[in-house]
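Exercise 7. Given the encoded structure of a 324-residue chain, write a plausible sequence.
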């Protein structure tokens, strides 16, 4: 049963320079207890996707098509008040930019206690503050927070970026939402802490059946956390499949190029040169397949026609190399 269904989602940003086509025609599901890793270089639309699902897009953004169904409910049809109830208990999100995620006027302790109060209530348990504090300290130790007893007495502005990020990750672990969205939550943390946090998220998923949408620019991280991987490029969904199939049998040249940079997990080392160039400016995206200017296999049709998303072996792929 899908906790999250995204169908043909398209999002634009209005800017003084014109319209930015940030996401076009994105469709996927996340089942209960399943993790989907979303991977792509900077500028691929990953954060836009997370914000669109959590209904936190900035005011210059517009949904221009598609539907987002969370737990059977059409997210866009809810009023702001109805949706606010979902956010936090149903959907929890850790942002890429941690600075704005905590309330500046409350101590860390009070914000984490509030998160637990909501969960205890949902689970029908009476709230016991000393028990809650113990749980909070335990989770902060799990995310490798040094001196958690001191940290919880602080206000957000007294924390470093990495500490705020760990408090946010801990808050999600404490809340146990149905869907945990994490936008590059570990990028600012060192490698051992990153690995520990990925493990905690997997435990959370396995123990409580929580669904995870995990965003990263690093396909090696995606392969660790994801049951499935979705590859985005310049707002287009290029490939989607189980992690085993996407890593083991990547079909899209862009996926293969991402994999060629991590030889240890991939037999695609050296198959494609590390791709030159960068993600195009989406004010004026390339026509057809948006990857074609960087693709070593590009043919005439690639610059003219947007490829359909088709099933090739076990993966869904948007590429003219396949099909008729
Ligand atoms: N608030 C905004 N206003 C205008 N354009 C934006 C805004 N946020 C992101 N974009 C543009 O949307 C595209 C996708 O960005 P983003 O979703 O942040 O990608 P990613 O998270 O993969 O790096 C980029 O071209 C980016 O410049
Ligand atoms: Mg981003």
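Solution.
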């Amino acid at each position: 049963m899908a906790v999250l269904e995204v169908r043909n989602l398209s999002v634009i940003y209005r800017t003084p320079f014109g319209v930015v086509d940030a996401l076009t025609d994105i469709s996927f599901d996340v089942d209960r207890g399943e993790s989907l890793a979303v991977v792509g270089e900077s500028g691929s639309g990953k954060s836009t996707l997370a914000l669109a699902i959590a209904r936190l897009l900035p005011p210059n953004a517009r949904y221009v098509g598609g539907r987002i169904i969370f737990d059977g409910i059409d997210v866009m049809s809810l009023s702001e008040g109805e949706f606010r109830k979902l956010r936090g208990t149903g959907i929890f999100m850790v942002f890429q930019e941690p600075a704005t995620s905590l309330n500046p006027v409350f101590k860390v302790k009070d914000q984490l206690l509030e998160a637990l109060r909501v969960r205890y209530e949902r689970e029908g348990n009476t709230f016991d503050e000393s028990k809650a504090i113990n749980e909070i300290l335990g989770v902060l130790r799990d995310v490798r927070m040094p001196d958690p007893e001191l940290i919880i007495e602080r206000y957000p502005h007294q924390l470093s970026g990495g500490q705020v990020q760990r408090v946010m990750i801990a808050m999600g672990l404490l809340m146990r939402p149905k869907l945990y969205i994490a936008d590059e939550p570990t990028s600012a943390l060192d490698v051992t802490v990153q690995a520990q946090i990925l493990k905690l998220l997997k435990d959370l998923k396995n123990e409580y059946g929580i669904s995870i949408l995990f965003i990263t620019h690093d396909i090696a991280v995606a392969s660790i956390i994801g049951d499935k991987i979705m590859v985005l490029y310049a707002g287009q969904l290029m490939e989607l499949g189980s992690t085993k199939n996407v890593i083991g049998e990547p079909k899209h040249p862009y996926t293969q190029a991402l994999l060629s940079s991590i030889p240890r997990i991939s037999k695609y080392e050296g198959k494609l040169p590390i791709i030159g160039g960068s993600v195009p400016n989406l004010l004026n995206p390339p026509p057809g397949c948006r990857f074609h200017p960087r693709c070593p296999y590009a043919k005439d049709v690639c610059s003219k026609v947007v490829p359909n998303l088709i099933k090739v072996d076990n993966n869904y792929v948007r590429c003219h190399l396949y099909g008729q």
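Remark. The chain has a mean pLDDT of 91. Students should compare their own answers with the one above.
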